[in-house]
Amino acid sequence: MSCGVPIIADLDGPAYIRRIGTGPPAPPHNRMERDMNAVVSLADSARYARTIEASKAVRWDIDKDVIKGRRFDVTRKYLPDGLSLARELALSPAEMRFISQIQGRTYANVFGLVERFITAKLIDVSGQHALGDQNALEALVRFSDEEIKHQTLFRRIESMMGETMPAGYRFDVDPDAVARAVLAKSTWSVLVLTLHIELFVQLHYRQSIEPDSELSELFKDVFLFHWKDEAQHAVLDELELKRHDATLSPEDRARAIGDFIDLVVAVDSILQVQAKADAAYFAANCGRTMKHMEGDLVARHFLKAYRWQYIFSGAGHPRFQGIVKGMIGEVGMKRIEAALATLA
Ligand SMILES: [Fe+2]
Ligand SMILES: [Fe+2]
Questions:
Q1: Rounded to an integer, what distance in angstroms lies between the CA atom of residue 84 and that of residue 313?
Q2: Distant-in-sequence, close-in-space partners of 89: CB < 8 Å, separation ≥ 6
């Protein structure tokens, strides 16, 4: 015997268990154990398992698979027209390209920002499976690991895009400060916002980035590889959201809808500040003096494009609508729609 704890051959379990704990087994109401042992059905466990397989199949490396020693080609667009909406403005091709590059850089920054709180929340909910379904635990640990990698990728490309653009671009939002504010809201609201983001990521890639043949190849590849992971993440968002939703009372859920609306309004306030900053950067670097009215028009258009990218394209996604309506019904959806209408 290597330690001073006696091994007693009785029916209370193996000796190594009794060495760890000298007291009786934890009662079933032990809060910590219960919180690490979420109930997952067999069908859901199989869904978690499938995301693990998909995650392994698409696993990629930032340098070897995505960047491959390349630089951003400043003669090409970064963000596609379908997202920048630049074709709605009466600008020269060079000016529209510059707008796509500014918005492409902001696109990388916004994902770096939101993925900070997404990772923190996913690490939090993955702990609820620590002593429970191990497929769920592994799927969510992989999810968090992938989001940390995405943040690294977005920081890399943000600085690489910066090398191709004039000085003066600003993105002054602190991801940790935003994450602290977001994580103070209810888990339901943060998971709904996360689902919304991960669904619009896929929509943006399939509908706008992939089909646009005029984009920087590197920019396109970054969001191809990002999309490959996000397809699994949206499945996991839905599983975690529904599992959490089932624990809420109607009153909890009504409060959580209010939290979600608060989060969307907070996102919009960030977009308003960034649209102004990006429009001013465009005006200062587009190579000509813009008339006052035209400057205002461009600034309004930046905000319109950002609201489309980060709020409306996701809110209108059929899968987002179906999942959220399934939880909050017609009345809850009307509350969200009324709040969104004030942003248009
Ligand atoms: Fe991501
Ligand atoms: Fe994700």
A1: 12
A2: 95, 96, 99, 297, 298, 301
Centroid of ligand 1 to alpha carbon of 69 (angstroms): 22
- pLDDT for 23 beyond 90: no
HSE (side-chain half, CA atoms, 13 Å) at 315: 20
What pLDDT sits at residue 26?
52
Q: How many domains does the chain have?
A: 1
Is 18 a member of any domain?
A: no
Find the 238 Cα to ligand 2 centroid distance in Å: 12
Q: What is the pLDDT of residues 88-108, one digit of tens each?
A: 988 899 999 999 999 999 999
Inside any domain, residue 172: yes
Distance between Cα 16 and ligand 1 center (Å): 41
| CA dist 57 → 124, 134, 228 (Å) | 25, 19, 10
In a domain, 1, yes or no: no
CA of 80 to the centre of ligand 2 (A): 21
Q: What spacing in Å lies between the alpha carbon of 142 and ligand 2's midpoint?
A: 10
pLDDT over 50 (residue 65): yes
Which two tokens mark 39? 């109930």
Residue 9 Cα to ligand 2 middle (Å): 50
Judge whether 22 lies within some domain. no
- Weakest mean pLDDT among 1-10, 147-156, 210-219: 1-10
Give 109-148 pLDDT, tens digit per residue: 999 999 999 999 999 999 999 999 999 999 999 999 999 9
**Domain that includes residue 181, residue range:** 29-341
CA 226 – ligand 1 centroid, Å = 6
Indicate which CATH number applies to the domain containing 215. Answer: 1.10.620
What is the C-alpha separation between 11 and 13, in angstroms, rounded?
Answer: 6
